[in-house]
Design brief:
mainly alpha, Arc Repressor Mutant, subunit A, 3-stranded antiparallel beta sheet, 7 helices, WH_DNA-bd_sf, HTH_MarR-typ
């Protein structure tokens, strides 16, 4: 038997499969909303990392976000041209570029965060607030376990 959306019920019985489908839908919706602003998910990720952790050297920012340094350089270039981040070369090592968030970047991140929360609310509409809180706690627990296994 196949469900109305075409997914085999045996796969719908796997939490990992459901997480994958749900994550894909969530990323797609948020990516579409960001694209309306001419942005991608990595723009938001770079802004969020700078807001949460402070200025970073580009290579450390790439490592933190698990991105190729050349991809981070492109995103940082785009954000710098738009005035959302500042770049400062290290006087001792001209290859090192420190990136920091500007007030305009912080304001943009606040707008993007609000948009991400709207997408989240749309996706989680079938859940009560208590269920949303429980889901968040369970996902954090699974994420922490995965992170601890890959970090060690």
């Amino acid at each position: 038997m196949v469900t109305s959306d075409g997914a085999p019920p045996s796969l719908l019985g796997l939490s990992t499969y459901l997480l994958s489908l749900t994550g894909k839908a969530a990323r797609g919706r948020l990516a579409d909303r960001l694209a309306e602003r001419g942005l991608r998910l990595w723009h938001m990720a770079v802004l969020a990392a700078l807001a949460d952790f402070g200025p970073h050297v580009q290579r450390a920012l790439a490592n933190r976000l698990s991105l190729d340094p050349s991809d981070v350089a492109k995103v940082v270039d785009e954000l710098a041209v738009a005035g959302h981040v500042d770049r400062v070369r290290d006087a001792a090592d001209r290859r090192r570029v420190a990136v920091s968030l500007t007030p305009a970047g912080r304001a943009l991140l606040a707008e993007l965060d609000a948009e991400a929360r709207r997408v989240q609310d749309e996706l989680l509409a079938p859940l009560s607030q208590a269920e949303r809180t429980e889901l968040q706690e369970m996902l954090r627990k699974v994420y922490a376990r995965i992170h601890s296994q890959t970090a060690g």
